[in-house]
Amino acid sequence: MPPRFTLRGVxxxxxxxxxxxxxxxxxxxxxxxxxxPEADELAEAALLPSLPAIPLDFDGVPLDAYxxxxxxPAERDALLASSLLADSAFTSRVHWWVRYWTGPAREWFPDxxxxxxxxxxxxxxxxxxxxFPPSLRYLPLIESGYAxxxxxxxxxxGLWQLMAPTARGLGLEVTPLLDExxxxxRSTDAxxxxxxxxxxxxxxxxxxxxxxxxxxxxxRRLLQREAPGVPRTDSLFWALRDQFSSETxxxxxxxxxxxxxxxxxxxxxxxxxxxxxxAFDVVRVPDQTTLDVVARAAGVSHExxxxxxxxxxxxxxxxxxxxxxxxxxxxxxxxxxxxxLIPTEERVTFVEHVVSEGETLDGIAIRYxxxxxxxxxxxxxxxxxxxxxxxxxxxxxxxxxQTGVDDS
Length: 408
What we know:
Order of helices and strands: EEEHHHHHHHHHHHHEHHEHEHHE
Strand content: 5-15%
Shape: elongated
Mean pLDDT: 87
Low-confidence stretches: 1-25, 30-43, 398-408
Oligomer: single chain
Structural class: alpha+beta
Distance between the termini: 39 Å
Radius of gyration: 24 Å
Largest sheet: 5 strands, antiparallel
Number of helices: 17
């Protein structure tokens, strides 16, 4: 039986049973799902229900009144139990964002919902494990549209839009070849640990979310300047909202607007995407390998492998060390044996070459033993006579030319 890791929207405990070394150096991680009925029941109970539909324009009725008996106070998580849901100004701003998510965002919001149907269950499980409000499942929706590989204009990356220094401080690997901010499991764990630290410091989810968006130092300075010694509450955040940048002051209403629409998309004219909880096997690749070769050994498409392994930034695993790679569920059982049949010199089908002073495209082509035209085809927009020093070229490497690999 292949190693299996299936996320079903419940808290899942994984037990490592064994690791088997198979011919050719490929290793097969055997992972078993430890079914814990109590943990499953806890996680299921914590899942956020569909919220009552609200009109697009503010009608004077606070969000708290809409929740009413449909979601009694005792059954609400910390975000839905906030006193600000009874605040008219806050409710009005949430309505503005509901109009945004159902208006200007209508073109791309269905893709957000579709990706959330795929990865949302993994976030639900992590939130249950950390004991955090289920409402936070909508934070990746407004941060990244649930896209693991997205990069913002400010260089924040991944599902949770983490900056590199923050990510490294949380123990994530961030290198040109492997960026764990793009890994939905590792980044979710790191982001939730970070959010937990912020909530513990500020004692308010609203302040914690503001600090997540703008950085804790700015929030500390503002509180020290404007409200020293005052208890940190959601209401205090709202009272100080004009002291934040426009993005940060609207960050929480934006989240609530997305929450209201995405929890009941059909009420706002969206098709409800079919639930597609992520499921995969985990295999061990012993050394540098391109993902198309992994796909060949797994007997699946390159696209499927890439979708599960965004952390490999350039589509290639790091050199000189084994790494775990996800493959579609059911395809891991024969992976090790098939991988072992692929000659070592054929396990990398492209390399990335950094242009040095004085290099020409012809010279680079000769070095790697590939036609110049193939390098041009692999690098659209390349000007062969005007190579930029420091630019990175993708070189489709012929198996016989693998000795020319540049690991820089």
